[in-house]
Amino acid sequence: MSPFNLKEIISVTMILFAIIDILGAIPVIIEMRQRAGHIQSEKASVAVLILMVGFLYAGKGLLDIIGLDIASFAIAGSLVIFFIAMEMILGIKVFKEEMPETISIVPLAFPLIAGAGTMTTLLSLKSQYQTQNIVVGIVLNTLFVYLVLKNVQLLERLLGKTGLSILRKAFGVILLAIAIKLFRSNTHL
């Protein structure tokens, strides 16, 4: 029997894809690239992979140090995901982030791609899915992030402003459903 579960891998991959929202971040990435002139796709992707896998394994230990359990973190994460989804659906900004003057691994890989929502989601996922399936989902998403970063100009031309807006709202609705599921599965009312 395989230690990997295809259904879990697909679920985790789709959840992370929605929360990372690399396609929805294309306009921000384009603006950052225009300011800096170049995006180092390989370095940014490796940093994203290391951040996510590292937090997946060390996140619980960090929570233990401060006295929190995964269920409490998952509920808090569901609220963060809820607000991110509302931003995507309604087009409002709840989280204010400054645009960096220069681009590097830090503003691109963290917090834009592997930010607080992604880290929260990883620990929330750990409460429901097998770790090896989450790692596969992380790797698949990192590959997709790399492809998007490498081809951001082409994607901008193909999707257009309307296509990007529709994509962002569709993933917002998916995230909203994920937030509700995480909240319900971690509360014992």
List keywords for this structure.
globular, 78% helix, 189 residues
How many H/I helical runs?
Answer: 8
Rg result:
16 Å
What is the H-and-E element order? HHHHHHHH
Strand content: under 5%
Number of beta-strand segments: 0
- Overall pLDDT level: 84
Structural class: mainly alpha
Measured distance between first and last alpha carbons:
36 Å
Helical content band: over 70%
- Identify the overall geometry: globular
**Oligomer category:** single chain
Low-confidence stretches: none
What's the structural domain tally? 1
**Main pleated-sheet profile:** none
Notes on the structure:
The protein is mainly α and 189 residues long. It has one domain. The protein is 78% helix and 0% strand. It is built from eight helices and no strands. Helix 3 crosses helix 5 and helix 3 runs antiparallel to helix 7. The protein is globular, with a radius of gyration of 16 Å.
